[in-house]
Task: inverse folding
C-alpha cells in the first residue's frame, strides 16, 4: 500500500534533513516542473489529479489555483500561503508531516507558487508548534542555501521566497481569510467573500492558501503523475489521507491510508479496537467541528462525499472516538467551551450564541438543566447553521451539538431527570 | 424597467445598492445595526436576515443578509419569511443576553436604535438565565461618556472612528463575547470627530457627556433646525433645548454639506449659550438705569428710548458689523448708519483678504465645491490651510477623497463599493493624490501623498509653481528651489490626470498671495479643460455674508472717530479686541462719546459699552448665514427669545427712526436686502417663509410626546401659559402643528413611528443615504461662470529668515481658535495652553527647550509664553495660538523680535 507522504518519516521522529530528503527523490519534482512544465501545466496536472484540500473543506486544489489571474497583466506580487495553523481539536496530522519531513512541504509550496507565479510565500504556523518552527526554519535556511528558494531558483528564472510566520494563537486563524487578516497585522476575523483570495487576497493581491497535507501531495503528483495519484484511492476520490484516532481505542495514532478507507477498518484495525471495558458509541470523524457518526456508520468509506452523505464531514480525518463510559454531554460541553472561547467576536450568532450554548450544557451537566433547554439547544443548532453566520466557524461548532442531540438525546434527558451527570456518579449507569 | 421582488411586490432593481438599503428606501421595516449609509456593509450583526430565492421556482431559498446582497434585477427575497423573522428575533435575543436592562436610566433610552429594533423584531421574553458579562468603563474626555456593558459589538464605532475619520486611539480589543471598544488607556478621544460616536453607536455605549450635565429625554426636547455658527462651512444642526437652555446639538443631515457627521467643535460649542457670561438684559448708563431706582434691569423699551435719545444727540454715527452676525443683522446695521458709515468689523488686511476671496469665487470658471463634492474629488491640493483646525468637517471630506482614485482602480474587480471590507481588502493602502502645503504639520498629513511645510510666502510660491506647471501661461515662479519645483510638478500632474481635481485654500494664514496661487491653480486646470473645484475657507460663519455687504475696514472707523467725524458707534456682535491691537481699540473707545454694543456674551468690547443690548445667539435666533461654499442658509431659534433678549436685527430695526416698520420682520429685511443687493436675492429662498404651512399647520418644535408642558412653569403659576408665538418662522413653540414630515430646512426632529433614534432620518430622505426628501436646504449664491480671468501674478519672494527676527504665523486649533466655542466648558477642557511654537533649529539656537519661557517683542510690547517645539515648523517661523486672548489683535503678516 502506497504511503507517499509518510513512508520516509522516521520512527524516532527526527526530521529528514535536506540531503536525506534529496536521497528519497526530494526536489526532483521541482526540478522537473521548472525544466519541463509551464506554470499553467502544473495547475493542469494538479487539476487532473483531482486532489482535494486536506484542511477539511475538500475543495479541488487545482481548480482553486486556476482562479488566480495569470500572465503579464496579472496583479503583482502574488502570494502562496501554507495554512499550518493546525488548531482543530484532536488533529495532529500536519504537525507529523512538518516535524518528520519538512522539505516535502516546502517543495509542495514552491511548486504551488510556481504554478501561480507567486513571488512570495508565507508559512502560517500554529503558535504552539515550537518544534515545527525550529525544524521549518532550519529547512528554509537549507533550501535557500541549496538554491531551491530565492532568486532564479535552479536557474529557471523563477524567484520565490518563503517566510515563516508563527501565529499568535487563535483557532480562527485557520480560516483562510482570517489568516490573511492576521498576516496583514489586522484583527483575525474572516473576510467577506466574494472577492475570494485567489483574486483579492493577502495585501489585496492574488493569493492561494493551502493546507499542509494538501501541499505535501504536490511533489508526488508532479513526479508520478495525475493518473498515479488517482489510482491510490479505491473510490472516486484521489490519493491517500492521513487518518488519526484518539479516545479509548487501544492504539491511538495516525495512519496514511487510501482516501475512502472504511471507518470500521480504521477503528477496529489500525486503532486496535476499543479498550477493554469500553464500548464504541460514536465518533467525530474530522476534528471538533464535525457531526457525530455512530455504530450504523461503521462501514462508511471515509471520503469527502460519503461522509457528507452520512450527515457529517470528513474534515481533517483525525477522529475522536466516544466510548460508553464518557459522557457525551460532557464531551459536547468541552467542545462548545472551546468554540465559544475561540469565536472571533465578529458576528452576533457566533459571539453570543455559542457562550449561551456552553452555559446551558454546563447547567445540564451540573444538574441545573431545565426541560426546555433541549429546545433551546436545538434552536441554536438550527440558528447557527450555514449562511446565517459570517463564516463557517459557528456552523461547524454546532455540528457535534446537533448530532449529539440526535444520537444521544437519552443521555441529555437522563441529565435532566437525574439532575446531574450520570457518568460522574456511576460509570455503570451509562449502560443501564 | 428591470425589477426585483420583495415579499411578492415588484420594485425597481438598483444593482448599485444593497437589498437592505433598497428595502429601507421603500419604507419597509427591516432591522439592522452594523450597516450605516456612510460606512457601508460588513455583515457583522446578522440582523437584516431575509430569505432569498434563486428564481420563481425556488421555494426553499436560503437565509442571506440583505446588506450583503446587491439589489440586482430578478432578485427575489422575503422579509416576512417565518424562518427569517425567527432568526432576526434570535439575533436580538443574543444581543440581549448581555445588554443591561437599564433603559429607564440609560441616556439613550427613548432614542435608542437597539430599543427600536428590539420592538421591531418582536423579541420580548428573556430565555437566557445566566449572568451577564460586564466591562470596566473608561474616561474618554469631556465630550463622550463610555458605558461598555451596553455594547452590542456592531463595530460601527471603530469603523467610523478609524476607517472613516482617521482616528487611531479607539480600537476593538480582545475577542469572542469580550470584544471591548475603547482606548488602550483612559484619556480624551483625540479625533476631532469623536462626537459622531454618539449618533453612530446604535445604543448607549457612547453618549453625550455634555448632555449629562442637564439631561433631557429626546421627546422632552424642543428642537429647531440651525446652522453651526462656529466656522464657515455652514453644517446643518439640530439644536435641542429645555428649561430655557440649550441641551445638545445633533447632526441635521444635509446631503451636500455635512452628510451624517459634525465636528466636535460644532457639536459641543453650544454650552457657551448657557453660561453666566450670557447677556440677559440691557445695560444703560447709570442715570437712565437708575430711573425708577428699584435696581431692576432696564426693559427693552427703556433701552430703545435711551439709545434713540443718544442717536438724536449724536454728532456722527458709525456702525461696526460682524462676520459672526447674520446677514440680516449686518444689513439692519448698515441701514441704520448708512452705507458710508458701515464698517465690516474687520481690520484692513483681513477685509482685503475676504474681498479677494469673494472676487476669486464670484467670477470663477472653477466651482466652489460643496463638502460632498470635496469628498468625491479624486485629486486634491490643499494650499496653506490647516483644515482640521479651521474647517474641521472639510478635513473629514478631504479624507474621503483619497479613496476615490483607488475606487476607480478596483472597479474592475466588480464588487460594489458599499462592500466596505472587500473594498478595504482590495484597496489596502492605495490612496489617491492629496498634496498638502502648510506651515506646520496638520492632522491630515497622514492621508497625504506628499506634504510641504514652509513659511507662508514659500507655500504661495509653491502654489504658483503648481499653476504654472498645469498651464505654462500662468506666471512662472523665479528662483524656485528644485525640490519644491519637483513637488509642484508632481501635484500638477496628479491634478491634471484627475477627473474631479480640486484646490482648497483659505485666509487663515492672512496671506493674500496664497489665494492668488490657489485661484491660479483652479483656473489653470479649467483652461486645460479639467472641471476643477476651487474652495476657499474663511474664518467665520457669515464672513461671506458680511463681506458681500461690503463694509469699510475697521481702521477707517478709527480714523473717523479720531478726526471727530463720529462720536457714536453701534458695534454689532464683534469684540474689537480680537480684531485690532488693544491700544488702538482703547483709544477708539476713549474717543467715543457713546458706545452701543449688541452681543450675546460678555467680551472685552462689551466691557467698554455705554449701552449694551442683549443679542440672541444663533441657537435663539432666526437669520441667514452665507457659508464659504457661497450657500445662503437659514437658522431658526430653538427657544423663544426671553424678553428682552432679541436678535440683533430686531434691536436695530427698532432703533431705526423712520423705516422701523419696513425692517420689523426678517422677511421684510430679506426683501430689502434683495432690492439693494440683487445677487443676495436668493437668500430669501433659503428656507420656506413664515407663512408656509403643511396641511394648514406649522411645524412643531416639540415632539408629540413632550411632557411637563403644564408643570415646567408650575413653580411660578399653576395656569398654563399660552405657548409663545413665532411670527417669523413656520414653526411653533409647542407640540401643536403638522404631523407630516416638513421640508429639510424646517426639520425639528428625526422621528417616525417605530423609529425613535436618529436613524429615523431614513424616513426623511428620498432614498436612504440620498438627498433630503423635497431637496436639501439652502441656496447657492455663487456659481462658476465661464469668464476669462487674468492670472494672479503677485508672486512673493522666497522667505528669508533674518537674525533676531521671526515671522509670526497663526496656528489654529479646532478647540480654542474660534471665539464663541472656546467659551464652552467642554471645549475649554480640550484647549491647549497658549504657547509659542518653535522649530527645533530656532529652539536650539536660542537654547530653549519644551516648556521654557520665550519672550518675543511684538509692536514693541513683549509677549512671554512657554515654548513648544514643533518638529515640522520651518525655521524662522514662530507659531502663535490664533484666537487666544494672549495674542489677540495682531495684524498679520507681522514680525517679532526675539528677546
Result:
Amino acid at each position: 500500500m502506497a504511503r507517499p507522504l509518510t513512508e520516509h518519516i522516521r520512527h524516532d521522529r527526527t526530521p529528514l534533513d535536506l540531503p536525506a530528503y534529496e536521497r528519497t527523490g526530494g526536489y526532483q519534482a521541482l526540478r522537473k516542473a521548472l525544466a519541463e512544465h509551464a506554470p499553467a501545466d502544473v495547475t493542469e496536472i494538479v487539476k487532473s489529479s483531482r486532489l482535494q484540500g486536506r484542511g477539511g473543506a475538500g475543495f479541488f486544489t487545482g481548480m482553486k489555483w486556476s482562479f488566480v489571474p495569470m500572465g503579464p497583466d496579472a496583479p503583482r506580487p502574488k502570494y502562496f500561503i501554507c495554512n499550518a495553523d493546525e488548531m482543530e481539536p484532536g488533529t495532529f496530522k500536519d504537525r507529523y508531516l512538518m516535524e518528520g519531513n519538512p522539505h516535502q512541504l516546502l517543495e509542495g509550496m514552491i511548486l504551488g507558487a510556481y504554478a501561480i507565479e507567486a513571488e512570495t510565500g508565507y508559512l502560517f504556523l500554529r503558535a504552539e508548534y515550537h518544534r515545527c518552527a525550529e525544524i521549518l526554519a532550519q529547512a528554509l535556511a537549507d533550501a535557500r542555501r541549496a538554491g531551491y528558494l530565492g532568486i532564479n531558483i535552479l536557474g529557471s528564472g523563477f524567484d520565490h521566497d518563503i517566510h515563516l510566520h508563527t501565529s499568535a494563537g487563535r483557532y480562527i486563524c485557520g480560516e483562510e481569510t482570517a489568516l490573511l487578516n492576521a498576516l496583514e497585522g489586522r484583527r483575525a476575523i474572516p473576510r467577506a467573500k466574494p472577492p475570494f483570495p485567489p483574486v483579492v487576497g493577502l495585501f489585496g493581491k492574488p493569493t492561494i492558501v493551502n493546507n499542509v497535507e494538501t501541499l505535501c501531495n504536490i511533489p508526488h503528483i508532479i513526479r508520478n503523475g495525475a493518473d498515479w495519484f488517482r489510482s491510490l484511492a479505491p473510490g472516486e476520490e484521489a490519493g491517500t489521507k492521513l487518518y488519526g484516532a484518539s479516545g479509548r481505542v487501544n492504539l491511538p495514532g495516525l495512519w496514511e491510508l487510501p482516501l475512502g478507507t472504511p471507518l470500521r477498518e480504521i477503528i477496529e484495525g489500525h486503532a486496535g479496537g476499543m479498550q477493554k471495558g469500553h464500548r464504541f458509541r460514536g465518533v467525530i470523524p474530522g476534528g471538533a467541528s464535525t457531526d457525530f457518526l455512530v455504530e450504523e456508520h461503521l462501514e462508511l468509506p471515509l471520503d469527502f462525499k460519503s461522509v457528507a452523505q452520512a450527515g457529517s464531514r470528513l474534515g481533517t480525518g483525525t477522529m475522536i472516538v466516544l466510548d460508553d463510559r464518557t459522557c457525551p454531554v460532557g464531551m459536547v460541553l468541552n467542545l462548545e467551551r472551546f468554540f465559544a472561547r475561540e469565536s472571533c467576536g465578529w458576528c452576533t450568532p457566533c459571539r453570543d450564541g455559542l457562550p449561551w450554548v456552553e452555559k446551558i450544557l454546563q447547567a445540564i451537566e451540573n444538574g441545573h438543566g431545565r426541560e426546555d433547554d433541549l429546545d433551546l439547544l436545538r434552536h441554536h443548532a438550527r440558528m447557527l447553521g450555514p449562511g446565517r453566520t459570517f463564516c463557517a466557524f459557528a456552523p461547524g461548532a454546532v455540528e457535534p451539538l446537533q448530532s449529539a442531540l440526535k444520537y444521544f438525546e437519552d443521555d441529555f434527558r437522563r441529565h435532566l431527570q437525574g439532575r446531574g451527570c450520570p457518568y460522574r456518579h456511576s460509570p455503570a449507569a451509562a449502560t443501564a | 424597467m428591470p425589477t426585483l421582488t420583495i415579499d411578492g411586490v415588484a420594485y425597481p432593481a438598483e444593482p448599485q445598492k444593497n437589498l437592505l438599503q433598497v428595502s429601507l428606501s421603500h419604507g419597509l421595516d427591516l432591522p439592522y445595526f452594523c450597516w450605516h449609509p456612510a460606512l457601508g456593509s460588513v455583515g457583522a450583526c446578522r440582523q437584516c436576515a431575509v430569505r432569498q430565492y434563486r428564481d420563481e421556482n425556488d421555494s426553499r431559498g436560503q437565509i442571506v443578509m440583505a446588506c450583503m446582497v446587491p439589489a440586482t434585477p430578478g432578485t427575489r427575497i422575503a422579509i416576512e419569511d417565518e424562518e427569517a423573522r425567527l432568526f432576526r428575533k434570535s439575533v436580538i435575543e443574543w444581543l440581549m443576553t448581555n445588554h443591561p436592562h437599564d433603559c429607564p436610566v440609560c441616556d439613550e433610552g427613548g432614542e435608542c436604535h437597539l430599543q427600536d429594533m428590539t420592538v421591531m423584531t418582536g423579541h420580548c421574553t428573556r430565555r437566557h438565565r445566566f449572568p451577564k458579562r460586564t466591562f470596566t468603563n473608561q474616561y474618554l474626555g469631556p465630550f463622550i461618556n463610555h458605558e461598555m456593558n451596553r455594547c452590542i459589538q456592531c463595530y460601527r464605532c471603530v469603523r467610523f472612528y478609524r476607517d472613516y475619520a482617521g482616528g487611531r486611539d479607539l480600537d476593538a480589543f480582545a475577542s469572542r463575547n469580550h470584544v471591548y471598544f475603547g482606548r488602550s488607556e483612559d484619556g480624551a478621544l483625540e479625533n476631532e470627530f469623536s462626537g459622531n460616536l454618539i449618533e453612530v453607536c446604535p445604543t448607549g455605549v457612547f453618549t453625550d457627556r455634555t448632555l449629562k450635565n442637564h439631561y433631557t429625554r429626546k421627546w422632552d426636547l424642543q428642537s429647531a433646525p440651525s446652522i453651526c455658527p462656529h466656522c464657515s462651512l455652514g453644517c446643518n444642526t439640530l439644536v435641542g433645548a429645555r428649561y430655557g437652555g440649550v441641551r445638545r446639538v445633533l447632526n441635521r443631515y444635509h446631503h451636500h454639506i455635512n452628510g451624517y457627521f459634525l465636528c466636535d467643535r460644532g457639536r459641543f460649542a453650544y454650552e457657551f449659550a448657557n453660561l453666566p457670561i450670557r447677556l440677559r438684559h440691557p445695560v444703560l448708563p447709570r442715570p437712565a438705569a437708575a430711573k425708577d431706582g428699584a435696581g431692576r434691569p432696564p426693559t427693552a423699551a427703556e433701552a430703545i428710548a435711551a439709545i434713540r435719545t443718544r442717536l438724536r444727540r449724536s454728532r456722527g454715527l458709525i456702525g461696526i458689523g460682524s462676520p459672526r452676525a447674520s446677514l440680516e443683522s449686518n444689513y439692519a446695521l448698515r441701514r441704520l448708519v448708512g452705507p458710508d458709515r458701515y464698517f465690516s468689523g474687520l481690520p484692513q488686511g483681513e477685509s482685503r483678504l475676504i474681498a479677494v476671496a469673494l472676487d476669486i469665487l464670484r467670477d470663477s470658471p472653477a466651482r466652489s465645491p460643496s463638502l460632498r463634492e470635496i469628498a468625491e474629488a479624486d485629486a486634491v491640493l490643499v494650499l496653506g490651510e490647516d483644515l482640521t483646525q479651521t474647517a474641521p468637517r472639510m478635513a473629514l471630506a478631504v479624507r474621503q477623497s483619497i479613496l476615490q482614485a483607488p475606487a476607480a482602480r478596483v472597479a474592475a474587480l466588480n464588487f460594489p463599493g458599499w462592500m466596505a471590507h472587500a473594498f478595504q481588502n482590495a484597496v489596502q493602502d492605495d490612496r489617491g493624490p492629496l498634496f498638502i502645503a502648510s506651515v506646520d504639520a496638520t492632522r491630515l498629513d497622514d492621508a497625504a501623498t506628499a506634504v510641504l511645510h514652509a513659511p507662508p510666502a514659500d507655500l504661495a510660491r509653491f502654489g504658483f509653481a503648481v499653476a504654472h506647471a498645469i498651464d505654462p501661461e500662468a506666471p512662472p515662479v523665479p528662483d524656485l528651489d528644485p525640490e519644491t519645483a519637483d513637488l509642484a510638478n508632481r501635484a500638477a500632474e496628479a491634478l491634471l490626470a484627475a477627473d474631479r481635481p480640486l484646490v482648497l485654500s483659505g485666509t487663515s494664514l492672512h496671506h493674500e498671495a496664497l489665494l492668488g496661487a490657489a485661484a491660479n491653480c483652479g483656473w489653470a486646470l479649467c483652461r486645460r479643460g479639467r472641471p476643477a473645484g476651487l474652495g476657499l475657507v474663511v474664518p467665520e460663519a457669515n464672513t461671506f455674508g458680511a463681506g458681500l455687504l461690503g463694509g469699510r475696514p475697521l481702521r477707517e472707523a478709527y480714523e473717523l472717530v479720531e478726526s471727530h467725524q463720529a462720536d457714536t458707534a453701534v458695534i454689532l456682535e464683534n469684540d474689537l479686541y480680537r480684531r485690532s491691537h488693544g491700544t488702538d481699540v482703547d483709544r477708539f473707545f476713549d474717543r467715543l462719546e457713546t458706545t452701543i454694543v449688541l452681543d450675546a456674551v460678555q467680551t472685552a468690547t462689551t466691557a467698554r459699552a455705554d449701552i449694551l443690548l442683549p443679542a440672541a445667539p444663533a441657537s435663539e435666533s432666526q437669520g441667514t448665514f452665507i457659508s464659504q461654499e457661497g450657500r445662503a442658509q437659514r437658522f431658526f431659534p430653538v427657544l423663544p427669545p426671553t424678553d428682552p433678549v432679541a436678535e440683533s436685527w430686531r434691536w436695530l430695526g427698532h432703533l431705526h427712526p423712520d423705516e422701523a416698520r419696513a425692517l420689523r420682520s426678517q422677511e421684510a429685511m430679506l426683501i430689502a436686502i434683495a432690492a439693494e443687493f440683487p445677487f443676495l436675492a436668493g437668500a430669501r429662498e433659503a428656507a420656506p417663509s413664515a407663512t408656509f404651512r403643511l396641511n394648514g399647520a406649522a411645524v412643531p418644535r416639540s415632539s408629540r410626546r413632550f411632557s411637563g408642558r403644564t408643570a415646567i412653569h408650575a413653580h411660578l403659576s399653576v395656569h398654563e401659559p399660552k405657548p409663545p408665538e413665532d411670527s417669523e418662522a413656520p414653526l411653533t413653540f409647542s407640540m401643536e402643528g403638522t404631523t407630516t414630515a416638513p421640508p429639510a430646512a424646517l426639520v425639528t426632529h428625526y422621528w417616525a413611528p417605530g423609529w425613535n433614534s436618529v436613524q429615523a432620518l431614513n424616513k426623511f430622505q428620498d432614498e436612504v443615504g440620498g438627498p433630503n426628501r423635497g431637496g436639501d436646504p439652502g441656496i447657492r449664491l455663487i456659481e462658476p461662470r465661464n469668464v476669462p480671468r487674468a492670472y494672479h501674478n503677485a508672486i512673493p519672494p522666497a522667505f528669508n529668515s533674518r537674525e533676531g527676527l521671526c515671522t509670526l504665523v497663526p496656528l489654529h486649533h479646532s478647540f480654542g481658535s474660534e471665539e464663541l466655542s472656546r467659551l464652552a466648558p467642554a471645549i475649554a477642557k480640550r484647549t491647549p495652553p497658549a504657547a509659542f511654537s518653535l522649530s527645533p533649529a530656532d529652539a536650539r539656537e536660542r537654547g530653549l527647550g519644551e516648556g521654557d519661557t520665550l519672550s518675543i517683542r511684538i509692536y514693541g510690547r513683549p509677549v512671554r509664553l512657554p515654548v513648544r517645539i514643533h518638529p515640522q515648523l520651518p525655521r524662522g517661523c514662530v507659531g502663535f495660538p490664533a484666537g487666544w486672548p494672549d495674542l489677540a489683535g495682531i495684524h498679520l503678516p507681522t514680525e517679532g523680535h526675539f528677546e
In short: The radius of gyration of chain A is 22 Å. Chain A touches chain B through 37 residues (CB under 8 Å).
